[in-house]
Design a protein that fits this description.
The structure is a single chain. The protein is of the alpha+beta class and 315 residues long. It has helices at residues 10-24, 27-37, 51-67, 69-84, 86-97, 120-131, 156-170, 173-189, 199-210, 264-282, 295-300, 302-314; strands spanning 220-225, 229-235, 240-245, 289-294. The chain has a domain at 199-314: 3-Layer(aba) Sandwich (Endonuclease, Chain A), CATH 3.40.960.10. β2 and β3 form a beta hairpin. α9 crosses α12. The longest helix is centred in the C-terminal third of the chain and has 19 residues, at 264-282. The protein is elongated.
């Protein structure tokens, strides 16, 4: 006979909880229970719930987590602790890649979660919520929350693992294509943040400072030239402008051969570069000098690039 809701006192529930914790802290007990349930599937599998039932359960769960801050924090801590466990994380990765399925997850084999289950309208709503443009009652309780890994200090080993995983992912041409497509969509929608202090720019600036050049005295980073357009670096006293060009956005000819089909943003970037070159070459009777460096050249040999800058400055 089961217990009805509210039939147990707080003290009884607390005693039962403590008993369960003691029971499941025993490895032998866990092994025994695991063997007893091995191969069994959930009693609810195959049972269909009506749309009304699903909505009621969903609303009830949302209401519970919206109103109960303590439960929400507890669930977040449990999830955080689980994912900090290396073995658990490794097992989950294997499950998602289809390399490992236990008796508990066998019924999920071949399943892709919510893939294909969202309507276009729902997808748009999810997109707006993620961008912070819209907050629904379902996600309102997350508003202002910071992700659990913000401020987390990773060990050298963890950083190495993350770095290798990123390199492995980016080595896949399909992954790079999808990432670029998503970036371009964000760029077109206006939600992509303006890139004003890119890694190649930081490399150039660090090397200049190492050589004794002082920012805001010898050179200016992000300089508005004659109220016309922004330049990456400017040496006003020497009348030298430095531009750091991204290989994709400015269509590096070593990577995007002439005659190949370019993206509209690349074509736009090339036109903008030509206009900038023409203007700088004519202003002040052509006394200004413009130097351009490709992102890949800076990555490969930043010292050589700054050597070229110094040659022009010394003239």
């Amino acid at each position: 006979m089961g217990f009805s809701k509210g039939s147990l006192t707080l003290e009884q529930r607390k005693r039962m909880s403590e008993a369960q914790k003691r029971r499941f802290s025993n490895p032998e007990e866990i092994k025994k229970l695991s063997g007893a349930h091995k191969g069994q599937k959930g009693y609810w599998l195959g049972k269909k719930r009506s749309k009304t039932t699903i909505q009621k359960q969903r609303k009830s769960l949302i209401k519970y987590y919206v109103e109960n801050i303590e439960a929400r924090d507890k669930m977040r801590d449990i999830t955080k602790n689980l994912w900090e466990n290396t073995e658990f994380r490794k097992r989950q990765i294997e499950v998602r890649k289809g390399k490992h399925y236990s008796s508990k997850t066998e019924f999920k084999k071949g399943s892709s979660g919510f893939k294909g289950k969202h309507s276009e309208k729902t997808k748009r709503k999810i997109s707006l919520v993620k961008k912070g443009i819209r907050a629904s009652p379902k996600t309102e309780f997350k508003k202002g929350f910071t992700p659990w890994n913000v401020g987390k200090v990773y060990t050298e080993e963890e950083r190495k693992v993350l770095s290798e995983a990123t390199k492995k992912g980016m080595a896949n041409s399909e992954t790079r294509r999808k990432l670029r497509a998503n970036t371009l969509k964000m760029y077109e929608s206006g939600s992509f943040p303006k890139q004003t202090n890119t890694k190649p720019e930081r490399q150039i600036k660090e090397e200049l400072i190492k050589r004794g050049y002082k920012e805001e005295i010898d050179f200016i980073h992000q300089y508005k030239f004659r109220d016309k357009f922004m330049c990456d670096f400017c040496f006003p006293n020497k009348k030298v402008i430095i531009e750091v060009d991204g290989d994709f956005w400015h269509a590096n000819p070593n990577k995007y051969a002439e005659g190949n089909k370019l993206h509209k943003h690349q074509i736009k970037g090339i036109k903008r570069d030509r206009s900038k070159n023409a203007y700088i070459s004519k202003v002040d009777n052509g006394s200004w000098r413009l130097l351009r460096f490709w992102e890949s050249d800076i990555k490969e040999n930043v010292i050589g690039c700054v050597n070229n800058i110094e040659k022009v400055l010394n003239k």
